[in-house]
Amino acid sequence: MFRIKQLLRGALTPALCAAALLALSGCPTNPVWNQAEYDRGFDDGFMVDEEYWLGFDDSYDTRDFGPIYYSGSEIPIVEEPAYDAGYWDGVWYAYNDGYFVQYDYAFTVGFSEGYDVGFRANWIAVISADEHPEHLDGGWSDGYNDGFSEGLMLGATDYDTGLPFDWLDAMFYYREGNDVYLEEVDRGTGEYGPVWLYEYGTDPNDLVKKAEPARSDPGRAAIRRTPGAAKADTPDLSYRVLTPEAAAKYNTTQSTSPRAGEYTLSVSDTTWLERVQAYRSALGSKSGHAPRDARRAVPAAE
Predict the structure, then answer these.
(1) Which segments of the chain are extended strands (E)?
(2) What integer is the mean pLDDT of 101-113?
(3) Which of 88, 114, 130, 268 has the fewest CB atoms lying closer than 10 Å?
(4) Angle 16-21-23 (CA atoms, 0-180°, nearest 5)?
């Protein structure tokens, strides 16, 4: 399972539905509920590409500490008829898939550049001088900085342990749930570092209102809570084919990182788009890295 949360989409069977009624307030009480119509509506709503790319663009336009453009909370929740309930649930997932995929791609770009900056002899000084800006909003800057911070630690770890430069391998190592910790700087990834990962389907407008938000849990995510039956085969996170407009946003490269402009990036021989495509390709094979046991382990639990 990848470290960046792909939504765990479970199904509520009729037997479980009644038991979960109070917890979810999302199971039908109407005995003539038409599950097939709900499923048909969901499939139609999920395939609305306009909503997917709207979410994608809303995340891309959410920069630094400026306005938050997330509008998934504005998608209506309807109770009946079943087709409409399913349709709007599908639209919600389509929008949030687009929003989250943008964050995911920004994380990938940030990780590659953070890894690059950390993979050098003076990594202790680099990390000691670095500060992680936490945005919490699932936007471009949030994804980039979350990825940069985690990549920075993996780059330093790989350099220090004599592993070859390979940011994609390191990113999959991280996404599969592995953390590293460097005693020299008392910092690492996951709970040993400053990063809060954005959770799928979470309204960032609510997150930023919290003074001290809880650290993101990779095994937990928001769910769509609609008075209707849960779809049994809700699709996985959809990495839809980039439109020409979306691809153009990534068809660029920078010789330095906005987090560490004094260091020239070796990954600048590839565009952001090429790095995203490499990630997508590795996702398809899920065999992109060999075990790297030489990486530093996190401290043992006391």
Answers:
(1) 181-182, 187-188, 256-257, 260-264
(2) 98
(3) 268
(4) 105
- Residue 264's DSSP bridge partners are 256
How many Cα atoms within 13 Å fall on the side-chain side of residue 176?
15
Q: Which amino acid is at 15?
A: A
21: pLDDT strictly greater than 90? no
Contact criterion met (CB below 8 Å) for 199 and 7: no
Radius of gyration for the alpha carbons in the chain, expressed in angstroms and rounded = 20
**What is the residue-wise DSSP string for 105-130?**
HHHHHHHHHHHHHHSSTTHHHHHHH-
Higher confidence at residue 229 or residue 196? 196
The model's pTM is 0.83
211 phi and psi angles, rounded to 5 deg: -65, -40
User: Which residues does residue 187 pair with via DSSP β-bridges, in sequence order?
Assistant: 182
Other Cβ atoms within 10 Å of 161 Cβ, number: 13
Amino acid at 256: T
- Report strand pairing: 260-264 vs 256-257: antiparallel
